[in-house]
Amino acid sequence: MTKQSDERNYYVYIMTNYKNTVLYTGVTNNLKKRVYEHKLKLVDGFTKKYNVNKLIYYEIFNDINNAIAREKQIKSGSRKRKIDLINRLNKDWKDLYEEI
């Protein structure tokens, strides 16, 4: 996972809560801003309700259609597949927010 600032990038990301019991997958064109919104609970819905505030995985795309397709692929997978995906790149499940 590399840091990039080009606004034409799109990000598929997975976030969790403090106890790593909930997984949320989303897509955005501004990862830093979107994660910030989740952390401060500025967005009503699932992430606010379940206190999802830790970025644990993301992928970068330069085409929105590819990003949306990947988001759907991840969302349709089992919890085990999501956990395996996260563990391959972030085995300690550390918050990646400061790296972006």
Question: Short summary of the structure?
Answer:
The chain is of the alpha+beta class. It has helices spanning 31-39, 46-49, 64-76, 79-89, and strands at 10-16, 23-28, 54-61.
- Poorly predicted tracts of residues: none
> How much of the polypeptide forms β-strand, as a percent range?
15-25%
Helix content: 25-40%
Please give the order of strands in the largest beta sheet. 2-1-3
CATH architecture: 3-Layer(aba) Sandwich
Oligomer: single chain
Number of helices: 4
How do the helices and strands follow one another from N- to C-terminus?
A: EEHHEHH
SS-based class: alpha+beta
The number of E-state strands comes to: 3
What kind of sheet is the major sheet? 3 strands, antiparallel
How does this model look, in words?
It is a single chain. Helix content is 37%, strand content 21%. It has one domain: GIY-YIG endonuclease (3-Layer(aba) Sandwich), CATH 3.40.1440. Strand 1 (10-16) and strand 2 (23-28) form a beta hairpin. The longest helix is centred in the last third of the chain and has 13 residues, at 64-76. It is of the alpha+beta class and 100 residues long. Strands 2-1-3 form a three-stranded antiparallel sheet, sandwiched between helices.
Which keywords apply here?
single chain, 100 residues, alpha+beta, GIY-YIG endonuclease, three-stranded antiparallel beta sheet, 4 helices, 21% strand, globular
